[in-house]
Amino acid sequence: MHHAHIDKFAYQDSFIHRLDGRVKFIAVIVFTAVVISLPRTSFSILACYAVGPFAILVWAKIPLRFVFKQVLMVSPFVLVLALSCPLYDRTSVVVAFGPFSWRSTLGWIRGFTILGKFTVTMLALIGLVSTTRFSDLLTALQRLGLPKLLIVQLGFLYRYIFVLIDRAHHILRARAGRSMRNLGFKTELKTASAMLGSLLIRSIDTAEHISIAMQARGFDGTWHTLSKLRIRHRDYIFAVAVSCFLLTLHFFVRPVLQ
Amino acid sequence: MPKAIELKNFSYRYHDGTVALRDITLSIEHGQRVALIGPNGAGKSTLLLAMSGFVKGTGKVLVDGLEINKKNLKKIRTIISSCMENPDDQLFMPTLFDDVAFGPLNMGLEAEQIKIRVADALRTVGLSDMSERAPHHLSAGQKRAAAIATVLSMAPEIITFDEPDGSLDPRNRNNLIKLLTALPQTLIIATCNMNFAAAIAGRAILLDKGRIIADGGAEKIMSDSKLMAEHGLEVPVKLQGR
Hints:
Strand content of chain B: 15-25%
Radius of gyration of chain A: 23 Å
CATH topology of chain B: Rossmann fold
Number of domains of chain B: 1
Helix content of chain B: 25-40%
Oligomer: heterodimer
Distance between the termini of chain A: 52 Å
Number of strands of chain B: 10
Number of helices of chain B: 10
Mean pLDDT of chain B: 92
Order of helices and strands of chain A: HHHHEEHHHHH
Low-confidence stretches of chain A: none
Structural class of chain A: mainly alpha
Largest sheet of chain A: 2 strands, antiparallel
Low-confidence stretches of chain B: none
Strand order of the largest sheet of chain A: 1-2
Mean pLDDT of chain A: 86
Strand content of chain A: under 5%
CATH superfamily of chain B: P-loop containing nucleotide triphosphate hydrolases
Number of strands of chain A: 2
Largest interface: A-B, 29 and 35 residues
Largest sheet of chain B: 6 strands, mixed
């Protein structure tokens, strides 16, 4: 079965793709921290911050349709949070944009700022995972000092989530093929729990087989890797460019909405 | 010279008390290609696990003259390698390169040596240009070939295969037969597919209900239609009418 992998475009080749995973990861973390720490009045500046990840996505030839689909996929959680803001903060404020001004509430301003920050940081995150292979990202995280156990678990998660999804699809299809009518909530619930149980048992079975396969190849609990990461000139150029971009926005750009 | 595999009066019971293997005594010479044939539930997979030291029963199991015990296990893992029934269980790393390098890394080899071994193993199975692919991007046939590469990179003397032809189309099955018959190692292949077994093995061991029923030349055993039918098997097409 074919799946929409998060690193679907990470196997392309571009200047951004060739950058070291560590540099890209640190750049995204710093960028995200800066964007999140912007004051709530800075909604209009977010558009300037969006230019950075947007330019990287275009440069790396990541289809924008794919990017916005990914943003939409995770947006429901943030939408609930953003839309609840106007409900609990109804302090009236005047919003000015050049010669225009209108009345709004602090809740709406907060809500829009949350949505704006979410979109901009998601663009940066999608830029990272779409230009870095998951395996390289794991190596980068390991080289940055993340615990090996966590790296191994992330690796297994990425490797087996698709196997698990396939299995779940097969079980659902087998059920659909034999369910001629609705048997009522109680029976359906019972069937669903039995299906989940079956999936869990199969997962345990798979884990046992993987453990055997690992031991058969000499695994004794210590995780060894052949790291292929190397910081090159282009990585320094990228790091300087990101720093200049953030510093320029921080010192020279003022909000147009007051 | 010690035998590749030797089992002496080996028996094994599952945790629920069901007898999986009963009083198994056999020996396999180096360089032999042996098919473990038998119906479902005969104990073929369990016997392969016993040969690799993954199940502990009563009796003795020797690999290249070394008795399977805690002290010898690390050495034994470099002599015998196992290819699992489901390639998804065998390919657990994010990329094919990492997966094929996993064994040599655990053997403590140098980085350059590991790269050479990975390249050689991938070339042998015809996946040289896919080393950076994630295993879930491979087709069933490619996954099977990749799983074989993961054990070849360890350069073992003995390789066990559990139902290696499962879910393969005829073209991929023929490719696998070509690949396995070209390998110089001792091969022990558990399968229910008699045509596949007949195409590869020179010796067959028929197993049913945890016992060895017959052991000898593959053609002789697999052409015995009465014996095959008695144990829920069939005579391979190439041996029919003999």
